[in-house]
């Protein structure tokens, strides 16, 4: 990479050292520097910064930030060419923080503990060290139109036959395309799309997206409902709800109501819903490939505190699910405390709900709890649990 790119990336890293998250530092820095308005230059700076945090524990802290960036990019090039040249033990020790070691319920029996990672853990660690894939979701019926216009679009793995999901690998700034401006597609990770498919809302039903954020899943649910029925979208952040409304207008989504809800016991409406989605705040371990800086800012204390928030959210919204209705819980993390422990505790505490197979997110899924592994999807990691009210 050129010296201007490395120098600018170093300035971003200095901003991060003051406590600013890397993604925010990149947004603030790149928008202020007129030399980095071109999509390619912006991508190169972002790539350098995220590569730095991906290989942070391999770098010499006494070197200048420019030298560390060069070393990180060299490590990335070596890994991309021959990933087996990095020992599994080294990846387990350096790619993620120590506290995570015993926090993920690996599917292999006896996999927890020890220095050598199990097969699933090793595959996950290798996935973390790769650059993430950019996924888009087209509106229903516009798949051919959008992908033909954009080009460079590839459908997901064969076992996920989602007609509107595509991996984009082209050079275009998607936000500036006329198709995006017309609301014909959204930039949305594949794992997030699978959460909406697990909900499987039907046209005419009434659904509630409780922690809607800026509306990614809300927009998808509304599209699956064919703009019919009613979708409540709530969040505690007014700023996020403002962005949700702007996105809904662009996507021509009209069957929704947006409102504030702080996650407390007092619900925003007395409506009984056919389905409720809790895409809960979480530690975000499943997004560490896309946001490697978060590996070094998250802690076990965060996990424990968020588990309390997640438990309260489930308990508070349970009465809003009508008889025969479904409750869907999702988190973009993989820690035991925020996934299986939360789901098992809710099942025990609420006999009025029965675990229900997570259909739609994965073919032939018979379990009421589902892990979506990044290495299997080439996307974020996600956990989904579903129940049906008796």
How would you describe this structure in keywords?
390 residues, alpha/beta, Alpha-Beta Plaits, 4 domains, 8-stranded mixed beta sheet, 4-stranded antiparallel beta sheet, 14 helices, 12 strands, globular
Tally of structural domains: 4
First-residue to last-residue Cα separation: 59 Å
Query: What CATH first level of the largest domain would be assigned?
Result: Alpha Beta
Helical proportion, percent range: 25-40%
How many helix segments? 14
Number of E strands: 12
| Residue fraction in strands | 15-25%
Order of helices and strands: HHHHHHEHEEHEHEHEHEEHEHEEHE
**CATH fold call of the largest domain:** Rossmann fold
Mean pLDDT across all amino acids: 93
CATH homologous superfamily of the largest domain, by name? Vaccinia Virus protein VP39
Q: What structural class should be given to the helix and strand makeup?
A: alpha/beta
For the record, the CATH architecture of the largest domain stands as: 3-Layer(aba) Sandwich
Major sheet size, sense and barrel closure = 8 strands, mixed
